[in-house]
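Before the break, one more example. Copy the sequence into your notebook; we will annotate it together after we see the structure.
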Amino acid sequence: MEAMRRPAAFMDARGFTLTELSMVAALIGLLAVLATPMFLSYWRSSTLRAGAGELAAAVNLGRQIAISRNTTVCVQVSSTGIVMRTGGCGGTIWTGPGTDGSGVIRLANTLQVSSGGNVVFANLGTASPAGSFTVTNPVDGATRTVVVSTSGRVTVQ
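Here is what the structure looks like once it is written out:
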């Protein structure tokens, strides 16, 4: 029986009161309410940045195809996807990694892309004409621009 006794330190130990637990829960709730708008703003801007980056990568793929195949590639951007044609804008549709059966690269985000016309990459990677595409987040109207310069460089602004 002596071995089953608890030490005296455990006899005086007490738990937390209901008031203390309520205060901790209230502070956690308050922090969550204050952080939510910042998190949503970050989420929207990250979605827009990722969509513009995805579009820039797909347009840059057209440049890479033109250089590697030593031909011209026409990149046609629509609001939902991208089509690349080898041999110019009237040429054959390129199908490869990332395209569906009809040769369309679908954009994953639910963002809106305004078409800035076709961009044609030459076999050395230069673009003619230069172009820009605007990516818009329909939730808040924020925009990012994907710019293709005449040198062929694709940037997100």
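The domain at 10-156 is CATH 3.55.40.10 (minor pseudopilin epsh fold). The first strand starts at residue 73 and ends at 77. Try to locate both features in your own notes.
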